[in-house]
Amino acid sequence: MNIVLFGPPGAGKGTQAKILQDKRGLPQLSTGDMLRAAVKAASPLGKKVDAILTKGDLVPDDIVIDIIAERYDQPDCAKGAVFDGFPRTIPQAQALDAMLAKRKKKIDVVLELKVDDKVLLQRVEQRIKEGGILRSDDTPETLARRLKVYYDNTAPLLDYYGKQGKVVTIDGMAPINDVTKAIAAALDAKAR
Ligand code: AMP
Q: Which end of the chain is more exposed for a tag (fewer CB within 10 A), N or C?
């Protein structure tokens, strides 16, 4: 099964992707994690994207499309994957559909984690209170930028996937356990 976890920054996509990875053996494919690893390793890719991540802007489509295709061809993705933070633009979604079609696969479901902006801001503030700033883009100021980028570029994907009948909306403001249960119920319903 190929799953897209969809939602604004801080909605809990990474948390739920990790749970799906543990419970269903579907690898978490997080472009954000991959890009941060490249920055940390100071690779040529990392040097190219570092400032973009810190600002909260999107890295160019061709870069993320390439890293996703390369990662998806690893053997652990044979039964599918959980796409976390990808796609983020219409061209990325089109490229993903084309990449999967070439491999006789498809996106089975798009799980939209719905969370109010106010709650996203509270979550950032809480993380900083608990652990300080651990990510250069995890600040209230950059969240505002990331949210604008989300609404401008990424939110339109709901319509793209909605037309394909693939979107299931989940209340992302519920406790983590309840979100996990709602996702499990949605996936079990799809599998039937
Ligand atoms: P994330 O961890 O998913 O919030 O991603 C962190 C940052 O990485 C984003 O703010 C972007 O700068 C970059 N990024 C991650 N995924 C993508 C993507 N699919 N397209 C463009 N930029 C991305």
A: C
